[in-house]
Specification:
With about 240 residues, the protein is an alpha/beta fold. The protein has a single domain, classed as 3-Layer(aba) Sandwich (Rossmann fold), CATH 3.40.50.300. About 35% of the residues lie in helices and about 25% in strands. The protein contains 9 helices and 10 strands. It has a 6-stranded mixed β-sheet, sandwiched between helices. The chain has a 4-stranded antiparallel β-sheet with strand order 2-1-4-5, with helices on one face. The two termini are about 30 Å apart. It binds adenosine-5'-triphosphate (ATP). The site of adenosine-5'-triphosphate has 10 residues, from helix 1.
Length: about 240
């Protein structure tokens, strides 16, 4: 089966300095794929480059069989790509409902109310907080708002940058369960995660990025059992 997202030879960075170099990555439809690696490896830069938030200098990106290299973020959203940025990812003074509404701007759904209901059915905790300012919520609830907002454009591919960053272990479990629910609804997921071991346990495939380059890719299970990956990136303990 051909990949939903295919990244080939991608080089990108800031101010002409490459941060990722020649990165290759395929994400199959309906899978959860996770990018792990040390701090500063370029994981966020890779996600942001796929979503056209960082300038690419070389390489190609295709999505759903169509070349998307060079398209702008506002063009990617209607095609079915959405992103949840890392932290500070809600509009704090807007209400939860208004935050969700922002998610419809780039690709207005035909039936907004139906999409909103679908999204809220994933996050029942938010139902009672729709009129509350998003900035007043807990970190875990804010992450749900950010995920909900990204889902309002009905993406085929959801990019998430460290969705569990700064969350308590209890919320970490909740967010990972939500990702499984979102995948069940047919959304493909590509995420960056620092909680590598837990993320690989729910992932179909994983990609280790080191110093901006592919180090190794494999199934979540294979990476959890790979000695080099375990020693260097999973704290050494058995999976
Ligand atoms: N906007 C920017 N301008 C200049 N350099 C940047 C910018 N954003 C990130 N960098 C640099 O790019 C490198 C890779 O950062 P990136 O955030 O992509 O790594 P990461 O693997 O996601 O790291 P972490 O796990 O710490 O979030 C770092 O050296 C960082 O300082």
């Amino acid at each position: 089966m051909s990949a939903l997202l295919s990244v080939a030879g991608l080089t990108a960075g800031y101010g002409g300095v490459p941060i990722i170099e020649g990165v290759n990555l395929d994400v199959a439809e309906h899978e959860i794929s996770v990018i792990i690696g040390p701090n500063g490896a370029g994981k966020s830069t890779l996600l942001k480059t796929i979503f056209a938030l960082t300038a690419r200098s070389e390489g190609e990106i295709s999505f759903a069989g169509k070349e998307i290299t060079g398209l702008r973020t506002a063009q990617l959203v209607p095609l079915g790509i959405s992103m949840v940025p890392q932290s500070r990812n809600v509009f704090p003074t807007l209400t939860v409902d208004e935050n969700l509404d922002v998610g419809t701007y780039a690709a207005p759904p035909k039936d907004k109310e139906k999409v909103r209901e679908n999204v809220l059915s994933l996050f029942p905790d938010l139902r009672g907080k729709l009129d509350q300012a998003a900035g007043e919520l807990s970190g875990g609830q804010r992450q749900m708002v950010a995920m909900g907002r990204a889902l309002m454009s009905e993406p085929k591919l959801l990019l998430l940058d460290e969705p569990t960053a700064g969350l308590s272990p209890a919320y970490l479990e909740i967010i990972f369960d939500l990702l499984l629910d979102i995948r069940k609804r047919g959304v493909t997921i590509l995420m960056v995660e620092q909680n590598a071991k837990q993320a690989l346990r729910i992932a179909d495939n994983g990609h280790v990025l080191v110093s901006g380059k592919n180090f190794v890719s494999g199934t979540g299970e294979a990476l959890l059992n790979d000695d080099a990956v375990r020693r260097s990136f999973l704290g050494g303990a058995a999976a």
